[in-house]
Amino acid sequence: MKVISTKLPGVLVLEPKVHGDHRGFFMESYNHQTLAGLGIEHTFIQDNQSLSVEAGVLRGLHYQLAPKALTKLVRAVSGAVYDVVVDIRKGSPTYGQWIGVILSAENKRQILVPKGFAHGVCTLVPNTQLLYKVDDYYSPEHDRGIAWNDPDLNIDWPVSNPILSDKDRQQPSFALADNNFVYGGDLS
User: Fold this and answer.
1) For a Cys staple, 52 with which of 16, 57, 80, 170, CB 3.0–4.6 Å?
2) Which chain positions carry the site (Participates in a stacking interaction with the thymidine ring of dTDP-4-oxo-6-deoxyglucose) (predicted)?
3) Largest CA distance in the chain
């Protein structure tokens, strides 16, 4: 497994070793022992899957407040997304900064999104399926979000008129979003 650091500390892109031949390929998409050996020690307890049937579906920017904050390990099993992660830890040197990476069934990349970061994806092709490993359970009362098009974040999404859920259409601005993350604080 190759680990690629990003400008957001703790947000990592993972590239698995892929063994391919004329039949197809084999890869280990997750191995707790391998990741622990790379310093990535999370206990994932649930897998989630999403399907977006159209290109231009935007989901996010989502997070859960502490103490039910989530670390996610995300990968595309079909199709492709532009995956965005935003640092929302108050006092962080990278507070309000974001990164975007393409995750696809073809490149087999994964992204590790730690607690204290908002996460969103925009589908680049129809019939895109994502798998998310998470280290805690969904908690509706801790579920929060930020407007995908917040001008203070100025995210360079690949669409200008995305397909949104009602929930994502009504998310607050970054400045007004409910957020209890503090850089260096306990995020559990």
Assistant:
1) 57
2) 138
3) 53
